[in-house]
Amino acid sequence: RLKEERTAEVSKLNRELDEHRQRISELQKELAVLQSELDAQKEANARAPTTTMKNLVERLKNQLALKEKQHQALSKALMELRADMVSTAQESVKAHAVEAEKDINVQKIIDRKTKELQ
């Protein structure tokens, strides 16, 4: 009878031992999965841009946008300046042509008066 109780108790302890071994095995597998996920996340974090890098990129984008606006403003001002210069040049050419025509008319009058006097 003691032998049967002892055998029953040993069997019970062996079952518990097997259950604990199985649980340890499952926990080790879960630990391995979590470790591989952790390693993958560490690697991804190492490749991903840091917050500082993201802030620098954002600041550079803002600076680029500002420079583009300044470039557009300067281009517009340059275009207006060119138009003014063309207009001034055209007016100058017209004024020179009028002056030349007046000189020619004066010369014609002088030639005519000189001819009359001869």
Would you write up a description of this structure?
- The structure is a single chain.
- With 118 residues, the chain is mainly α.
- The protein has 2 helices and no strands.
- It has helices at 2-47, 51-117.
- The longest helix is centred in the last third of the chain and has 67 residues, at 51-117.
- It is rod-shaped and about 170 Å long.
- The model has no long low-confidence stretch (mean pLDDT 93).
SS element count, helices: 2
Number of strands: 0
Structural class: mainly alpha
The low-pLDDT segments are none
DSSP helix fraction: over 70%
Biggest sheet layout: none
Radius of gyration: 50 Å
SSE succession: HH
- Mean pLDDT, rounded to whole units? 93
Strand content: under 5%
User: For the terminal residues, how far apart are their CA atoms?
Assistant: 170 Å
Q: Tell me, what's the shape?
A: rod-shaped
Write a concise synopsis of the structure shown:
By secondary structure, the chain is an all-alpha fold. 96% of the residues lie in helices and 0% in strands. It contains two helices and no strands.
Keywords:
96% helix; mainly alpha; 2 helices; 118 residues
Give the secondary structure arrangement, pairings included.
Layout: H1 2-47, H2 51-117
